[in-house]
Request: fold
Amino acid sequence: MLLNWRLIAPLTYTFITIIVLFGPFTSTSFASDAFQIKKLTHVNKLLQDKQGFIWLGGQQGLTRFDGEHSINFSSDNPKHPLPFNWIHDFVQVDNTLLMATETHGLWSLDSQTGHAQPIVDDIGEDSFYDITVFQGSYYFQTANKLYKFQPLTGNSLLISDDIAINEIVNTKGSLYISANSGLYKLKDNSLIKIIEQSITAVITLNDSVIAFTKNNIYSISDTGKLINSIIDESIYQAARAYNQENFFTVNNQGIINKYSASSLERLHHGFEDIQPGRVRSILHDSSGVLWFASNQGVERRYENNIKEHPKAFDIITNANEIALLDNEIIIGSYGVGLQNFKNKVFNADSNNNFSPKGLKITNLAIVEDELFIATFDGLWRLNKQSNQVSRVNFPNNNKLILKLKQHNNLLYIATDNNGLYVYDLSKKEILWSITPENGLSSAEVIDILPLDNGQVWLTTAKGLDIYNSNTKAIKNINIPNGNKLVSIALVEDKVFAASLGDGIFVFNLEGQILAHRGQGIRFSGLLVEKNEIWASARPGLYRLDPQNYQLSMLENTGDYSFVGSSLVHNGALYSSHYRGILELNLTKQPVFNPRTLISMTTVSGESYLLNKTIKVASNNDLITLDLASLDYRPGLAKKFQYRINNNNWQPISGSQLTLTGLASGNYHVEIMATNSLGQWSDIKAYTEINVAYPWYWTIELRIIYAITLLFIILLTAWLLYLRTKSINHIHNMLKNDMRNCGKTIKIIQRNLHFAATSLANNDLEQGKQLVEKSLIELEKNISSQEPDNLEGKTLALAIPFLAEYMKSKYQVSLHFTLDDKADSFNYELKADIYKVIFEALTSAIYKSKVENFQLTLQEVKDKVWLTINSDNDCFKQLDSKINFDLASYTIRQITSKHYASFHTFDNDDGSSQLVISFPLMSLN
Reply:
């Protein structure tokens, strides 16, 4: 079907009318607290502090506003109490606000903590009206009296006791008093009149005072230089511009004027006048917004540098297309045909040639100074010579057409229900068409983008298609969320597609999504001009940077719902909206980077202003941060995001960040915010969060844990070193034994080889000698070996032999007692028991000065018990799993093999014992 914003039923028209009259629902100009601020009708003073907050003082007390939230300091607010409400005047000194009250004298309030305290004076009065700070002293008035107060000593000096003061102001070097009787300058604690006329308003700049009388403006520098300018209005309030180069005035009719501070010349400005009334205070803030506190309430005005051209026709939907014909803008209406914009391009009678449906124009295209018109009744053309319109001649040219695009002498025609037509401008005929039968995702084609590489990008009711005119193939691309893509454009080999509700998608030429910006915004059209993208939406007009995809709303466009048709003419951007055509200067405005602040911090129910290092006792504490971006211009709802300890940025829903469940430790929190145009500010907010550790994980205990862990690591490394050393020792012993055995085998092999040769040569004598040498070498090697295995003998024979061997070789006595059943075990067990006995005895002899062993071998309760006692502590090394030798290794391998238990004992008399039990059942 037709694009959603084109076919509109009467109910839809009513809805759009509401948007036009009252502004779009998605554009929140000011937060809800702003409307409460607007209702304050007794505000006496407006001030912006160094942080960027707006303060309002009056009969409601003192109110701080950050654009999102307001805090009122008064006797009516128990969270932020003051003993009074009525404030006549207040000034800022560093982070302190000095207040002149109606009932409680002078007070000071710390703007960072909210703590207030009285200023003790020696005057004895309660009502103070005006106050300023000059060269370290406080100057204030009480009932026609002017005082100078020294805050360090608490002493006051009466300067004048009979003067009707309107206001006390000061420059860097002088103090001025405005009164009904004239303007006075303070010199040597005396007042000198410098203007004789009644002063209606006064402001100061860095080194000069601007005073207003009934018919004049005076500028007087601290050096005495005077400039005078005659005016034709009565000025009752003024304010210096934020940059102090200009100033603003307002009269009782609500008319705002802007003047040069140096020449007093009236300047052009874009601020809309306010409601008539008596203004008490004006403020021009850092974001360029003018604030007015009057008897009508608090109003704000923002400078509007755009020019609106109302163009409303007698049609149901005032959605108009625009194009540039003969260097003049022409309008294609949605019901009354073609219309002139400023200058007359054609006669209105030419619309008589349109059919009734043809008067509804959906798009205009200029092709070589010729105007093609897409309508509800097909494609039409304007003949400039005859100034008449006529239907383009091709078959079935009576269908609804949505969009036209010209490329390489071809006109691409997007239809509502017939796919895409391609019209040859030279031959004046349809060359080919694309329909769902060719693979098109939908017969409703909304926009076309032909490329030089043969691709034709098409947005349809169901998504995005890429048609290759060379291969005739169509690639269908699904778009997330399913919102219609209503406009596409090419910049730097990237395709930008604007959707009707889900922002702008960025694709490469293969159809892969590179970026997605402006989620939730209802766009209606894209225009490319000098590699910049201008995106119209409902509401707002946006600028999109194709390099970094930064999307920002153009200032003061948030109250307009744009149709989608835009063009550039004479250095200005013209964009069609439902009330007419908006004209904008294309000069790129500098980005305003407002301060991002934590305006209030709440920790487990306890709140305090701004932020400081947050310390909580556990991860169960709830931390809430109220956030503010101090840009007071209307526009988009501000967005916030945060990250902790330089991790990824996370979006924040609304303007409040809530944190809980943080593990023990220290956290560095960064917060970013957008300004009113949707641009991210470079000025971030920061805070530190310290979550306490439990008692068992304090710093002191963690140091002890670290030292203990280090000790364990070093001890383990040392034990592993000893184990490695022992294993290397065993390997060396085995290597030496293998080397000796190898040498003996090689000698015998050599002798037998020569003996075989001699016998072959019948040299029997030499062969006999060689065999005898081999036998001698073998006997020598065998005789040098120790009796370290059973070699087929019985334990009853082998152990006595071992005792004799020990006695003869090591002079160590071995006494033994053998069970009668000792040789009834299987041979494998007997051989392993003998091997354990031999290794244990030899190891003990090598490692100690043992002289006597007592060996017992007996069977008890299906176990073979081997017990060896020594007169020395020679068995303790067998128990070590780190520092061991080959004997220890062999014994442990045998005991593990037979599932035997292994124990060593040291006695008090210096002797030791080895006990090993071999289970018999496991061998069956």
The CA atoms of residues 284 and 400 lie 52 Å apart. The first helix runs from residue 10 to 22. The chain is about 15% helix and 40% strand.
